[in-house]
Amino acid sequence: MEKLYDDLGMPPQIASTASRVAVPVYRNGRQIGRATTTTWSPVLKKLIALATVSAPHVAHGTTVEIEVTVEAVRQRVPAVVVKTPFFNPPRKTAALGSG
């Protein structure tokens, strides 16, 4: 996504709130689902999305494309199917030690 803005000579424009506008998800030029929520993750330093995709494309690591709008022009950017939660730090499930 950064490249799309860079090609226009603009800094990336990232919304400070999550978008609930459904956008298409593609693979091999065909729509396979839709992203229902997209947002910038300050922890992961990347755009993340929750999406529903058809069964043949749900394997973790599958490369897909998600539609984004840059300067009123729809574009497709690469995305990867990952397991949720997107970020699961060890401290979240660490047991308190005795002592």
What are the defining features of this structure?
single chain, 99 residues, mainly beta, 5-stranded antiparallel β-sheet, 2 helices
List the helices and strands and how they pair.
Layout: H1 2-7, E1 23-27, E2 30-41, E3 46-53, E4 63-70, E5 73-80, H2 90-93
Antiparallel strand pairs: 1-2, 1-4, 2-3, 4-5
Characterization of the model:
- The chain has helices at residues 2-7, 90-93, and strands at residues 23-27, 30-41, 46-53, 63-70, 73-80.
- With 99 residues, it is mainly beta.
- A 5-stranded antiparallel beta sheet has the order 3-2-1-4-5, with no helix packed on it.
- The longest helix is centred in the N-terminal third of the chain and has 6 residues, at 2-7.
- The protein is globular, with a radius of gyration of 16 Å.
- The model has no long low-confidence stretch (mean pLDDT 87).
Short account of what is shown:
With 99 residues, the protein is mainly beta. It has helices spanning 2-7, 90-93, and strands spanning 23-27, 30-41, 46-53, 63-70, 73-80. Strands 3-2-1-4-5 form a five-stranded antiparallel β-sheet, with no helix packed on it.
Report the structural category.
mainly beta
Beta-strand residue fraction: 35-45%
Number of strands: 5
Tell me, rounded to a whole number, the average pLDDT. Answer: 87
Reported for the largest beta sheet, the result is: 5 strands, antiparallel
Span from first to last CA?
A: 48 Å
Tally the helices: what do you get? 2
H-E string = HEEEEEH
Share in helix? 10-25%
Please compute the radius of gyration using only Cα atoms.
16 Å
Shape: globular
Strand line-up of the largest beta sheet? 3-2-1-4-5
Low-confidence stretches: none
